[in-house]
Amino acid sequence: MCRFLAYRGEPIFLADLVCAPAHSLVHQSLHAVEAKTGTNGDGFGIGWYGERPEPGIYREVRPAWSDENLRSLCDQVRSGLFFAHVRASTGTSTTRANCHPFAHGRHLFMHNGQIGGYARIKRRLEALIPDDLYDGRLGTTDSEAIFLAALASGLKDDPVAAMARTLKLVRGLMNEAGIEEPLRFTAAVTDGDSLWAYRWACDGKPPTLYFREENGSLLVVSEPIDDKDRGWQEVPKGCTLVASAKGGIEVQCLNEAMNRLAA
Amino acid sequence: MCRFLAYRGEPIFLADLVCAPAHSLVHQSLHAVEAKTGTNGDGFGIGWYGERPEPGIYREVRPAWSDENLRSLCDQVRSGLFFAHVRASTGTSTTRANCHPFAHGRHLFMHNGQIGGYARIKRRLEALIPDDLYDGRLGTTDSEAIFLAALASGLKDDPVAAMARTLKLVRGLMNEAGIEEPLRFTAAVTDGDSLWAYRWACDGKPPTLYFREENGSLLVVSEPIDDKDRGWQEVPKGCTLVASAKGGIEVQCLNEAMNRLAA
Amino acid sequence: MCRFLAYRGEPIFLADLVCAPAHSLVHQSLHAVEAKTGTNGDGFGIGWYGERPEPGIYREVRPAWSDENLRSLCDQVRSGLFFAHVRASTGTSTTRANCHPFAHGRHLFMHNGQIGGYARIKRRLEALIPDDLYDGRLGTTDSEAIFLAALASGLKDDPVAAMARTLKLVRGLMNEAGIEEPLRFTAAVTDGDSLWAYRWACDGKPPTLYFREENGSLLVVSEPIDDKDRGWQEVPKGCTLVASAKGGIEVQCLNEAMNRLAA
Amino acid sequence: MCRFLAYRGEPIFLADLVCAPAHSLVHQSLHAVEAKTGTNGDGFGIGWYGERPEPGIYREVRPAWSDENLRSLCDQVRSGLFFAHVRASTGTSTTRANCHPFAHGRHLFMHNGQIGGYARIKRRLEALIPDDLYDGRLGTTDSEAIFLAALASGLKDDPVAAMARTLKLVRGLMNEAGIEEPLRFTAAVTDGDSLWAYRWACDGKPPTLYFREENGSLLVVSEPIDDKDRGWQEVPKGCTLVASAKGGIEVQCLNEAMNRLAA
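Above: the input entities. Below: the C-alpha cells describing the complete assembly.
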C-alpha cells in the first residue's frame, strides 16, 4: 500500500502540498494513517508539467522523509499539474524504475494497490503489452505493467473504458491462474491536461481515495493531508473521478463500464 | 533514537539474530516498540569480527528492511562477535559515513541517544579530538564525535573511566553553551574481545538497554528481539555492562565513575 | 562491455584478486584496458560460496572504485569459489537488480556482451522463460534473460549444450526481428562446484576471455589482472572452458554444439 | 580533479549546456580531456536560481552519466544563473553532502582542486569557521571548508579580497604543518546576481579555467564544452574573473590581492 497526491489548478510550488501540510505526503511516508502499512519508505517519486510537453520526473529509492533533493525540488518547482507518490513495496525491489509515477510520452500514472498473485501472471500480463510500449518498461512492478497494458487498451482515447478493459483482462489472467488474492486498484492518470482517478477492487475493498475542489483547483489524495473535515470528499468505490481539461469534474461509474464489457 | 544489537558467543550466522527473530533488528527498523520513533529507516550498519584483526563493516543509507545485500550478508557471515544498528537520525544527514557502527582499528562503537544542542557545540567537541584520530572522522554525527573523543580519553585502556570522562567533557561543553536539552547516551563498544554497554543520561532518562546470557553467549539489545519474559535483564540506568574477554559479565556504576571525576 | 573475474581453488580472501592486483577488477572499473569502454562504473557485484549451499551476493549501483563496503567485504570474505563483475551498461538502467552476478538456487551467472537490438526481442525472449523461473527475474537486462532462458534450456544438466541452444534461440528471435546488430556473449556460470566460461559471437568478435591455472587454482578473467605474460591463456573464440568439479580443465567447442543443433 | 560549468545570461534549459553539447558536463563525467583524471564519477550536483531567493540544489552520489533524474531535471529547469559540477574525489567519501555545489543562503560555491595534506590541517581549518557557519557544514570535504572559511572572511562583501585572505590562511596552516603538497584552487562563487571565478595555485599550476561571452551571456567552464576555437578565453593563472550584477566582466589579479595581504 502506498500513498499519493495529484494536483491540478493554479501553478503552485510542490512544497505547498508535498512537504508543508500537517499530513503532507512526506509526513505520510513516515506516518500514514489510513494505510495498511504506516510506513511508506520504499522509494518515492514526483512528476510535474512545466514548459515542456513531457513531464519532469524525480524518483529515488530512499525514503521521502530524509531526501534533501526532494525538499529542494519541491521548494523550487512550481506547476499547475503534478503527481507525488510514496511507496510501500508489495514485493518488487526498491529501484528507481519501480517507483511511481510512471511516464509515457505526455502521460503520468501512479498506483496504490496490488495484483494478488502477481508473480503467477506477470509473464502473461507482460506478453499482452505490444513491443513498442514494452520497450518503455523500465522496472518490474505490477503497477507499471497495468499502466502499459492500459495504454495498449486505449488509455489515451477513452481512459475509463480502457482501464475497465485492463482490469477485466488482469482479472481474467488471475482467474485462469486460480489466484484467490484480490485485485485492488486505486490510481491516477493524467495526459498533462485532464486527470482521472480510479478506485476499484474485485472484492469491494479498494484503498481509500479522496478529493477536494477549492477555488478552481483539484486535489486528489489517498488520504487527507490536513483535517478530515476540511472539504474532503470520498471517491465512491467502483468509481472514477474525471477532471476534464475544460475544468468540469464528474464521478463516473467504473463498475458499469466493466459490466458493459462483461455483457 | 536508534535500535541496536550486540552479540558475543559461539560463532553464529548474523541472520539468526539480525533477520530471523519476531522482533529482529530488521523488523525493528520498520516497527520498533520501545523507541520514541517507531521507524528506524535512516540507514543501518553491521560490524563483525572474522579472520582479520579488524572488523568487517557494511553500512547503507537505505532502510534495513528492504536491503537485499543485508539479508544475503547476514545469511553468509558467521561470527562470534558482531554489532548491528538501525538508525533514526536526530538531524545529521543520511550518509553511509553517518551510519553505525563506527570502526577504529580493532574497535567498534554504536550509539542510541543524542547530544542535545549538538549544533552549538559540534565544532568545539571536534576541536578536542587529536589530529590522528580526527583523520578517521568520516561523517558528521554526534555519535562518531563521542567515539573519537572517547578514544582520545583512553577508551582502549579503561573503557568505563574513559567514557565517564568523555560524557563529563561533553556535558561541560553543553553547559558552557547554555544548552538545556539533555545528553542521553546508550552505547556499545568492543575491542574485538571484550564488550562494554553503557546506559546513562544527564536527566535520568537514558534509552532502554537489555541483555541476556544463554549458554555462554551474551546478547545486548536496545529492546528485546523476542518475548520480553525470555530472560532479558535491564541494564540499570547510570550503569555499564562489562563483558570481559575472559567471559565474566558484571555491571559497573558509570555514575560513580563520573562522580569520582567531579570530585 | 563489462569486466569480470571468476576464481576457483584454495579459499582466499576476495581482496587478493578483486582489490589488490595492479589491474584488479576494482582498478578496471575505472581503467579497463581491453574493453571498448574504459570505464565500468554502472554498478558492480560479487557472488561467493561460503558455508551455505547458496552463494552470497553483494551488488551495488555505485562504481566499484569508491565503494567502502566492497573493500571491507573483500577484506573479510574468504572463499574457494567466487565471481566478481563491474558493469558498463549497454542501455538498461543502473539498479542493483541489473548488476551481475545473477543467482538462481546454487547457480551464479555473469556476462560481458550484448544482445543487439535487445529492445525489439525483449518481450519474446521473456515469454520463453517458464513462470517458475520468470518469477526470479528481478531486473530488466538482456544478461539476466539469457541466464533464465539457459536454465530453462537445461543449464543445470548440460551447460554447454544448454547454452548453445539458448544462443541459437536468441539468434532466431533476432533474425525474425530483422536485427542486424550482433549477439556477443562472453560469460561465466557455476553451480558452486564446476565452472564454465563461454566465448562466442555471431560475428566472430566475442569479447576477450583469459584463464590461468596455478597450483591447482583457476582464474578466469575478461582481461589479465597483472602482467599479460604471467601465464594467461586466451579462451579461443567459439569455445567453452569447462572446469569440472573434479578439477580437470578442458576447452570444448561451443560452435560445434551449435552446429549440431542447426543440423 | 573535478569538472564544472557556470552560466549566467538569458534563462535557458540546463540541458542545453549540461547534457547536450559534444563535450557537455555529463559527457565529461565519463570522458574529461584536460583533467588529470578522465573520469569524474564520484557524484555530481547542480544548483540553479529560479523564483526563490535561495537556489535549488540537486546532488547525487552516482555518476552523472547514468542519472535519469539529472537528465529529466535539466530538461525541465530553465534558469538564468546556474552551476553544475561532476566530482572526482581527492580522498573524502562519496556522499551527497560532499558533492558540489555547496549552498549557503543565496550563495553557491563549487571547486576543482585540492588542499595538499588536507587531513593534517582539517581540524585546524574547521576550528577557524564560526559556529553559525559551521552548523552549515554538512560534509567533510576541503572544498566546503574553504567555502565556509571564505564566508567567515567576508566573501559576501568583498569576494576577491575574502578569497585571497582565505587562501592565505589555508597556506599558513599548511606551512605550519610542514605540508609540501600544493594548494590548487579553481572555483566559482555566485550570490545569485554576480559571479566570480578564481584560478590560483601556490605552485603556479592551477587547474584550467575558461570563459566565453556570447550575446550577453557568460559561460565559465573547467574545460571547453565544444570546439576549443569557438571563442573560449582562458582565465589567466592567479586571476579572478568578475562578472558583476550589472553585466560587466573583468579579470582581476588575485595574486596582487594576496600580495597586499602579505605586506
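Note for the figure: The first strand of chain A starts at residue 3 and ends at 13.
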